[in-house]
Design goal:
The chain is an alpha+beta fold and 158 residues long. It contains three helices and seven strands. It has one domain: 3-Layer(aba) Sandwich (Cytidine Deaminase, domain 2).
């Protein structure tokens, strides 16, 4: 038996003003998208903004449904929208923001399904995606979905 570990590297920024202008814009677009989230059951409104390799930014937000699991997370909404409208463009960055039940910013943490869809999007694009996870005091920057989903399922596993 061998014991092994997986290390996850990320950069922690202390607030929006410490980010580059392009990352600030992506976070602001995700926050704006979160405002329109439909979350009558969980109370958590989530927004995602994806930047494509030609510079266009597309957004999505969560859409809950009483017939769970018929709803859709913001990350998948944005990624599927980007892929359907621009199938030949790669996602280069994604920002995710969450508003809690009181409308306050909470730390963004994509669910497992969204991480897997982001992994597939990253594989199609052929390069790691910069991932910004928004929070009330800090913003995390991860490079590549392997930082969110180590030992992920890929087409090589089929």
């Amino acid at each position: 038996m061998k014991e092994r570990s997986i290390q996850i590297n990320y950069i922690e920024y202390q607030g929006l003003s410490t980010l580059s202008p392009s990352d600030q814009e992506l976070i602001l677009r995700a926050r704006e998208a979160a405002q329109g989230g439909y979350a009558p059951y969980s109370g958590y409104r989530v927004g995602a903004a994806v930047c494509l390799d030609h510079g266009e930014v597309l957004t999505g937000n969560n859409q809950e449904n009483a017939a769970y699991p018929s709803g859709m997370c913001s990350e998948r909404t944005a990624l599927y929208y980007a892929a359907s409208q621009h199938p030949d463009k790669a996602v280069v960055a994604m920002a995710v923001s969450v508003l809690d039940r009181q409308g306050q910013l909470a730390m963004a943490k994509p669910c497992g399904a969204c991480r897997q869809v982001l992994a597939e999007s990253e594989d199609r694009g052929g390069h790691p995606v910069r991932i910004l996870l928004d929070g009330p005091d800090t913003i995390l920057l991860l490079t590549g979905v392997d930082s969110l989903l180590p030992l992920r399922f890929t087409r090589d596993d089929l």
